[in-house]
Amino acid sequence: MLRNTWYDLDVTSAVTGNGVVAFSFASGNADGAYDDSRESGGYAPRLVVTTGTGDNVLLNAGDISACSTTGAAQTAQLIAREPGMVMAGGDLTDSGTAAQLANCYDPTWGQFKSRTKPILGNHDYITAGAVPTFDYFGPVLPRGTGYYSFDRAGWHIVVLNTNCSKVGGCQAGSPQERWLRADLAAHPNRCALAQYHHPLFSSGGRESSNVRPLFQALYDAGAEIVVNGHNHQYERSRRRTRAGPPNRTGASGSSWWAPVAVHSRAASPSRRPTARSATAGPSGC
Predict the structure, then answer these.
(1) Count of CB atoms situated within 10 Å of the CB of 77
(2) Model-level pTM?
(3) pLDDT recorded at residue 134
(4) Is 12 a residue whose pLDDT tops 60?
(5) CB 159 within 8 A of CB 149
(6) First to last CA, the chain
């Protein structure tokens, strides 16, 4: 090393997961070597770690805003400092009215509208047809159906509408189930993540058996992750070997991650959502 010289070292291969990574400098000189610096403050030696631009980060939460609470404003502060795509996981307001969207959602999570992908929940349909929510998001949310897919950072992401009675059902052979199987078949080489509001499995007691055919289609295609809302809690299940109830006592070897539910309305910090990105599965995702 020469003094007064910057050295760039690519340490990507050494960082394989979360935690502390230690580096040391060694000398090939048998007499040894010493590295030190007299600089301090802004001139002190520094290690700069770049983790990306947020393309591989999804920020997920459901049951987002209620005009009677400050939860949405508090969680919006967390989202504001995190890069990544915002997945608004359904029940964006209490009743899905235009006034609630304008006065409660828009001033808080609405500031991230340009990077938001919406999911429809049951509260959004309290207003007939969820029309104000479709109006608010425009072409991002396909009118009338509310299900769609897109690609992000090497992943294929599917958004489903589990308000089944509003979209012709969720049963096998329904328009949405047929669309889902065709969509997954068209992206066989992509790691797949699905998000929809109502969970098939949850310890919170608000499961929906109506979504089983959609879950089965995802399982059959080897999808990696399912993210849900609806239940007012955070929960994640272990990897799956079948499309039955989760085994919460031991890990299995399949490439399936069972439902996650995040609720953002509570003001308690322990209940607030945090930034999460997809983790690597056995299939290489």
Answers:
(1) 10
(2) 0.71
(3) 98
(4) yes
(5) yes
(6) 39
Q: Are 86 and 79 in contact (CB under 8 A)?
A: yes
Convert the pLDDT of each residue in 272-281 to its tens digit. 333 333 333 3
According to the 3-state scheme, what is the secondary structure of the chain?
CCCCCCCCCCCHHHCCCCCCCCCCCCCCCCCCCCCCCCCCHHHCCCCCCCCCCCCCCEEEEECCCCCCCCHHHHHHHHHHCCCCEEEECCCCCCCCCHHHHHHHHCCCHHHHHHHEEECCCCHHHCCHHHHHHHHHHHHHCCCCCCCEEEEECCEEEEECCCCHHHCCCCCCCCHHHHHHHHHHHCCCCCEEEEECCCCCCCCCCCCCHHHHHHHHHHHHCCCCEEEECCCCCCEECCEECCCCCCCCCCCCCCCEEEEEECECCCCCHHHCCCCECCCCCCCCC
* pLDDT the model gives residue 156: 95
Q: How confident is the model over 46-82, as pLDDT tens digits?
A: 665 555 567 788 898 888 988 888 889 999 999 998 8
